[in-house]
Write a structure and sequence with these properties.
alpha/beta; 28% helix; 13% strand; globular
Length: 235
Amino acid sequence: MFWHKKTSVKDLLPPPVRVEHGEYSMILSAHDDRAKANTDLIDLSLKAIESVRHIDLRDVSARLPKPPYFPDIWPGEHYKLLAGFMRALRPHLAIEIGTSTGISALSMRSQGVRLVTYDIRPWQSYPDTVLQDVDFTGDGLSQIVGDLGELSFFQTQRELLMQADWIFIDATHDGLLEKKLLNLLATLPFPKAPFILFDDIRVWTMLRMWRDIEYPKLDLTSFGHWSGTGLIQLI
């Protein structure tokens, strides 16, 4: 790490602006990153970004009790971009790892795709969930409770996971689970190379995980989540 001679700790602090949420990060050179974007990543991302201009998630925002209405914020939040990817890719099966309050799941489901969402907790256990029982009628949306980071559970889900051509990982954001999940997914003989989207790749604890990825990858933060959005293709 290189500093100018006159750099002080005060110079490194953020400017005195009002902000509700901030995260420490780092900017890293790109020329020596071993992984580069391929044409599949670029073409799909361009289609998704174009699609976002025609996507309305006000029905999802209406489930939030008060502002900020995150699904309507784009760029800056990733919900419209998630929906854009669903419209552009039309996946046979979309997988989400990390249900949480369900905003991402509803955003992707808004495009009529089949989605299976995983979490270590049932969706009903989140007090601020936006999901409702009616969302799980039919076979469009389902939740499976379990820890995909545990090999024994992961093995029980192999057949289902191999059907996915889209996987969204929004888990612990510690970089460790994400790396473990990626390594486990890489053991599966996917019939078609899936696209995997990671949330929060610019957060300090995720920087090494993202940098270490050697699969084709593309940083989409400017069109996704302010804390980082990264797309890879598992080939």
